[in-house]
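Let us work through a complete example step by step.
Step 1: write down the sequence.
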Amino acid sequence: MISLLGLTACPKRIADFGKDGEPRSAEELLRRITVAESQVYSLKGDAKLHVDGPQGKGAVSLFAAVTHPAFIHIEQLDFFGRPQGVFVTDGTRFGLYMSQDGKYYRGPATPANLSRFLPLLMPPAELAAVMMGRAPKLTADSLEMRFDDKLQLLVLVINRGRARQILHVQPPSYRVVKSTAENLNAYELEFGELSTVNGVTLPKQATLDARSARTKVELVWKDVAVNEAPDLTLYEFEPPEGIPVVEVDENGDARQGVDAQPVPGQPAP
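Step 2: predict the structure and record it as tokens.
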């Protein structure tokens, strides 16, 4: 009877850990996560963006392209599929056109400048990672690993000083499905709708919850191409014809002494 109770209290793990079996250490689990995430290096297609923040709730349709490490092209579309705003960055510089302003903003790709288009303060490489279903991670002082029998998920804990990042990982894809933090002012991430496209597994849904900013953002890929050769023309900083260009600094302010200039060869508005 004692033996039977013992077996009942410790149910056998039924998760599929893949051809290499269950990870033998936290370091091995982290390596498998890194390999799984690196299999997707570019995405392009239609998406839906849902935003819930201090300014209210809303949803917009997007055309988006992202290529590792920090190339991003996002078009905000109206009901008829016409671009109302276009944001482009190569990780160092950014360009932004918003039809309601009638201007093209250009400058360093800082978090402040990215927030002109998206209600997020994050560097472009981090945004690109999240869009591709990668969970940005702390640099580890130490790692811990356990298996959650109830959820049938592996749990990786990354320790750095007093800060802890907890990753819930789904075998056998070794994709992160949730990232939370303790003793750290950081956003939470959840990835869902795991799908296999062109032989690689990726999440088609990413939810970012920045509680300190009272902002929650969800990106859902609808029709997406995976790992196609990137169209580098998507990441060029070309303002629409005849639209004045405003050069901004790292804080998003127009550079002193630099007024909005019309595109060369076009008349001033």
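Step 3: interpret the result. The mean pLDDT is 90.
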